[in-house]
């Protein structure tokens, strides 16, 4: 019987390729996951109330149930920003963050990490986020992979800024040129759709710093849909959201949410797991709830 | 006129009369614009949460234009990606952006400083019509 990783590799198209499907049955069938895997969740927008998701009170909770049901526990979980929906009221912002933190405490994984989105951090330069979730940018190592979490949202103008770029340069200087490096951001580092503000104003400077490293992958959120793009040899993978999907980049005048489909609730929403090995990573997309 | 209504009216008009004809009518009637010495047209634009007013700007190809941008309530951003123009708009200060469009078409501009719950909808359209 083929194992789970073998099945994924057959479905993928080489190193860094993507397998797009919900694989609950497969996940329960075989325990071989290669070196390790982590789960990425993004754009939960806790506090959003609107027609684009009449189940906004339940979507995050359902996703957590699904993550907890994975046959093997991930080594860690990362939330790539917009944990909460923006509010002008600092008190309400903190209430939303407190409630979000309480809800995600139901995850059965101990190592849960966070980065902010502009909805969390842009109106107060990340002050509330830091109170509840700690630093807005940081790095860590796990089983031979160097992870870098960047903050391109605490500046309302979507800049990483000189201080953070210098920190990034110093952090990367500790790595060999062939080190396996994974970067987490909220916004795309490249100009995906500038007319929709889907960019980072000084993102090219970060990419320039990353370019000498031969094995770099970026996972981000913000655009509420899967998207895969290369800048040179660096791959960038956008994640689905857990609130509402958005149109394809630049495909219409306004980046208005796609309408909720009562016949297919949670359509276009989901989370992903990323399997890491020395030679590749395999991305597996999951819906919010098991079909 | 409310900027959203103005944009809707422009779309309806363009579908009825064609882009060029209706845009020319709006160009002539633009109360936000004034000429300086017949050389450069100044178009006043206000930015406030969560709209630009006017949200539709009509200029002629090759025309010398100054966008006189003024934020009313927040440090909004103004970005016109197709012309590689962007500015920060400090509340109460007029920021003049001089340019002369060298190609016709419809181009989106937006606030690119996150300003709150309606930020994603804070955008507008520059329409460049044929030279007179």
What's the arrangement of secondary structure elements?
The complex is a heterodimer of chains A (291) and B (132).
Chain A: H1 4-11, E1 18-19, H2 24-29, E2 36-41, H3 59-68, E3 76-80, H4 90-104, E4 112-115, H5 118-121, H6 127-133, E5 138-142, E6 145-149, H7 162-173, E7 180-184, H8 203-210, E8 215-220, E9 227-231, E10 234-238, E11 270-276, E12 281-287
Parallel strand pairs in A: 1-12, 2-3, 3-4, 6-7, 7-8, 8-10
Antiparallel strand pairs in A: 2-11, 5-6, 9-10, 11-12
Helix pairs in contact in A: 4-6, 7-8
Chain B: H1 3-17, H2 19-28, E1 33-36, E2 40-48, E3 51-53, E4 56-60, E5 65-71, E6 76-80, E7 85-89, E8 94-99, E9 105-110, E10 123-129
Parallel strand pairs in B: 2-5, 4-10
Antiparallel strand pairs in B: 1-2, 2-3, 5-8, 6-7, 9-10
Helix pairs in contact in B: 1-2
Distance between the termini of chain A: 24 Å
H/E topology pattern of chain A: HEHEHEHEHHEEHEHEEEEE
Radius of gyration of chain A: 18 Å
Number of strands of chain B: 10
Low-confidence stretches of chain B: none
Instruction: Let me know the CATH homologous superfamily of chain A.
Output: Metallo-dependent phosphatases
Number of helices of chain A: 8
Helix content of chain B: 10-25%
Q: Assess the beta-strand content of chain A as a share of residues.
A: 15-25%
Largest sheet of chain A: 6 strands, mixed
How would you sum up this structure, described in words?
- The complex is a heterodimer of chains A (about 290) and B (about 130).
- Helix content of chain A is about 25%, strand content about 20%.
- With about 290 residues, chain A is an alpha/beta fold.
- Chain A has a single domain, classed as Purple Acid Phosphatase, chain A, domain 2 (4-Layer Sandwich), CATH 3.60.21.10.
- In chain A, strands 1-12-11-2-3-4 form a six-stranded mixed beta sheet, covered by helices on one side.
- In chain A, a hairpin with a 4-residue loop joins β11 and β12.
- Chain A is globular and about 50 Å long.
- Mean pLDDT of chain A is about 90; it is low at about 10-35.
- With about 130 residues, chain B is α+β, with helices and mostly antiparallel strands.
- Helices cover about 20% and strands about 45% of the residues of chain B.
- Chain B contains two helices and ten strands.
- Chain B has helices at about 5-15, 20-30; strands at about 35, 40-50, 50-55, 55-60, 65-70, 75-80, 85-90, 95-100, 105-110, 125-130.
- In chain B, β2 and β3 form a beta hairpin.
- The two termini of chain B are about 25 Å apart.
């Amino acid at each position: 019987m083929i194992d789970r990783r073998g099945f994924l590799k057959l479905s993928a198209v080489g190193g860094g390729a993507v397998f797009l499907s919900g694989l609950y049955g497969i996940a329960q069938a075989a325990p071989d996951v290669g070196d390790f895997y982590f789960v990425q969740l993004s754009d939960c927008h806790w506090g959003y109330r609107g027609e684009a998701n009449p189940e906004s009170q339940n979507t995050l909770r359902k996703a957590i149930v699904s993550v907890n049901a994975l046959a093997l526990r991930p080594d860690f979980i990362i939330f790539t920003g917009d944990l909460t929906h923006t509010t002008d009221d600092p008190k309400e912002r903190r209430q939303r963050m407190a409630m979000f933190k309480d809800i995600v405490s139901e995850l059965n994984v101990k190592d849960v990490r966070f980065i902010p989105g502009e909805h969390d951090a842009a109106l107060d330069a990340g002050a509330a986020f830091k109170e509840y979730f700690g630093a807005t940018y940081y790095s860590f190592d796990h089983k031979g992979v160097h992870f870098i979490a960047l903050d391109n949202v605490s500046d309302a103008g979507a800049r990483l800024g000189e201080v953070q770029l210098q920190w990034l340069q110093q952090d990367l200087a500790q790595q060999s040129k062939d080190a396996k490096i994974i970067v987490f951001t909220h916004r795309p580092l490249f100009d995906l759709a500038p007319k929709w503000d889907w960019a980072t104003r000084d993102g090219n400077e970060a990419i320039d710093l990353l370019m000498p490293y031969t094995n770099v992958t970026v996972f981000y959120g913000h655009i509420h849909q899967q998207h895969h793009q290369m800048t040179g040899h660096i791959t960038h993978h956008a994640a689905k959201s857990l609130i509402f999907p958005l149109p394809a980049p630049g495909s219409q005048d306004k980046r208005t949410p796609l309408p909720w489909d009562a016949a297919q609730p949670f359509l276009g929403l989901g989370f992903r797991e990323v399997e890491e090995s020395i030679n590749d990573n395999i991305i597996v997309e999951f819906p919010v709830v098991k079909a | 006129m409310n900027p959203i209504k103005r944009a809707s009216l422009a779309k309806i008009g363009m579908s009825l009369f064609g882009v060029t004809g209706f845009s020319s009518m709006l160009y002539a009637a633009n109360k936000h614009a004034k000429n300086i010495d017949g050389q450069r047209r100044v178009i006043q634009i206000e930015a406030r949460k969560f709209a630009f007013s006017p949200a539709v700007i009509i200029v002629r190809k090759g025309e010398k234009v100054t966008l006189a941008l003024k934020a009313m309530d927040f440090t909004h951003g103004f970005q016109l990606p197709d012309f590689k123009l962007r500015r920060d708009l400090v509340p109460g200060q007029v920021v003049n952006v001089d340019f002369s469009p060298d190609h016709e078409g419809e181009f989106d501009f937006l606030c690119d400083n996150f300003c709150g719950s309606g930020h994603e909808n804070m955008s507008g359209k520059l329409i460049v019509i044929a030279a007179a």
